[in-house]
Design a protein that fits this description.
Nucleoside Triphosphate Pyrophosphohydrolase, 8-stranded mixed β-sheet
Amino acid sequence: MKVLLFTLCLIYSIQAAVIVTNQQLEARDGKDEVITLAQDAKSGLTGALGSEILKKLCFTLSQREPYRIPSPSDQPRRGVVAAILRWHCPKKKIPREFQKPRTLEEFFDQSWVQEGEAEILFMQRATRKGDRWSGHVAFPGGKNEKDETDEETVCREVREEIGVDLKSDDYLLVGQLDEREISSIRDNKLLMILVPYVYLQIVPESPPFELQTSEVAAVRWVPLSFFLSSQVLDYTPITEPLSIFRHMKRRWLKSLLNVMLGTISFTSIDLPPTTASDNVFRLWGLTMGMTKDIIKLVDTKESFFYKLTTQSPRFSRVDIGWFTMLITYAKVYWKRICHKNVSGRVYRSYVSAHISKLRLVSAAMETIKLEH
């Protein structure tokens, strides 16, 4: 019986390899996995223009009602992260004395918020043996504790991880992005609700970081202009075997199924370094999706980054890709039938969240530390 199964699988895998050979050759086109394209580091979105863009982003988000998802009683786990924005002003333009603003209006009326550029903070997770998300880029944050609100969770986690006190008067809560359901790719079981907050640093000089080295390897401020540029950027696809077979004990069967079902490639992009010796910060998955949600608040759908994030993952087996898309759209359509009374924006958010599973697969845990 085993011999028959092995023979049938071998024949099927050979046929599959023949089917996708042309697609693989076209995709590779004689190039390495890293796709090198021209990068425009300076987009001109600095000074007064950059300030207006940041202002529009902040006011749009502050007036926007996010899509909220209450946690079910059988899964109260919630993960909360913080995207922190700041206006990076040249030191010579920093006033010696100034009154700390208490509102967005007061912040953008400050004279020093006219020269410099807007930036967003990312962190790189520490490298740990056995952790397949080691070194991945994320927003600081973590999971909730019992009887803790979402804001209390994010303030505690951010302070523990990078030493930043979001409760201080150096920061202002701008708003919240849509909440997301994080489900297992294997059985669709709900793992947690992800809640992304956006904060603004309202002082010209950033407080020093105190990194929790067991969790965080590095942090980096990245100019918003990097994500708003229409110029083509360098990007690198991340390719992995289909994750549902990652934990199979029989290696020969796991290898065979990986050959039969092929691989899946996700869009990712390397964030610009501040010095030549900086680590590679590769943005993808959930954090890339949340970054896109922030960037699209300023109506920049012509930016290369935005277009890149709208790409679906690539399956080396075209038929597997079509089947996965069919199942996903069928689930979304069925949910629409069962929830006829929901608003259009809420429904679009729901659709986006489910279609995003094709882009995330098992990347759901890159942002939240589930092992603790």
